[in-house]
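User: I want to check something. If I give you two sequences, will you return the structure for each one separately, not as a complex?

Assistant: Yes, each is folded on its own. Here is the first sequence with its structure:
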Amino acid sequence: MEDHPYFESHELTPPIAETVTKRTAFGTHWGLIYFKGEDPHQLRDLLKHQEDLDFYV
C-alpha cells in the first residue's frame, strides 16, 4: 500500500490489545488511509482493494 504512487499517508496505529473488536463500518476507529491520484478508475480500484485487507491479523 505505501509503495503505491497514489498513497499519501495513513493514521493506522497498532492495536493496544492482542484482540480487537469486530469492525462495524469501513473507515471508522481503525484509522484513515489517504490516497490522491489523477485516474479515478485506478483510485476506485485501489480503495475497493483496501476493503478486503486484514490490517490486524
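And separately, the second sequence with its own structure:
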Amino acid sequence: MPITLASYNIHKAVGLDRRRDPDRILAILHEIDADVIALQEVDRRYGRRMSVLPLEAIHHSGYKPVPLSMKPDSLGWHGNALLIRRSIELIEAAPVPLPVLEPRGAIRADLRIGGQTIRVVGMHLDLSGLRRRHQVRSVLAHAAGCTQPMPTVLMGDMNDWAIHGGCFREFDRTWQVLAPGRSFPSRRPVAALDRIIVSAGCEVVGTGVHRSALSAVGSDHLPVFASLNLPKN
C-alpha cells in the first residue's frame, strides 16, 4: 500500500481572515489524511515558543508529534514539526543543523511503517537564495551521514520561486524533485514554494495540492502531498 506524506506551512494557524484558528488547521489535517505530515511555522516565534496547535488535541486526532521540541510548550524545532500516525513506529529523531542568519530549521525522523523503513526530513528554508543552497547541502550531508541508509523524503517550504533552478540544482540524479503544484499564496496560488523530494527507488503514485474551503483561508500556503510506494527493504 502506498504511504502519503504531506507538507503544510500553517502560518502559526493565522488564516487569511486574520484569525488564529488551531481547530481549523486540525480539520485541514484530517482532510489531507496523510500518514506523515511536515509542518512549518507551528510555534510562536517569541517568548516560550508555545505551539499554536494544542498538544492534547493532536493526541486525540490520531497523530503523535515526533518529540523534538525546543521548549516544554513547543511542538517543533525552530517552528518545524513532524506528525505521524499513532500506528507508525519512531526509530530515531534528530534536529538537522542548518547555516542560518534568521530562525530556520530542519528535523529528521526515521520511521517504520508496516515493516518498511523511511527517513523523513521536514524543513523551512531561508529567503536568501545563496543561503538556501547552503542549507540544502547541509540537509543532504546530514542524510548521507546517517548510519543506516533508507528511502528518504525531504519536504517543506523551500521558499524558492524557481521551477528547476535555484536550490534545486543541489539535487543530483539520485533524487526526484516533485512539484505537486502552486501552493502560495493560498487564495490565488502562483508559486510552487512547497516541495517534496524523494530518493531513488521510491515510486511516485501521485502528487497534488490540497484545495478545500478550509485550506483556502486557513493559512497563506496550501498543503501539498505525495503518495509513494517504498522500495522493499
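Because they were folded independently, the notes below concern the second chain alone. The mean pLDDT is 92. The helical segments are 22-32, 55-59, 129-144, 215-218.
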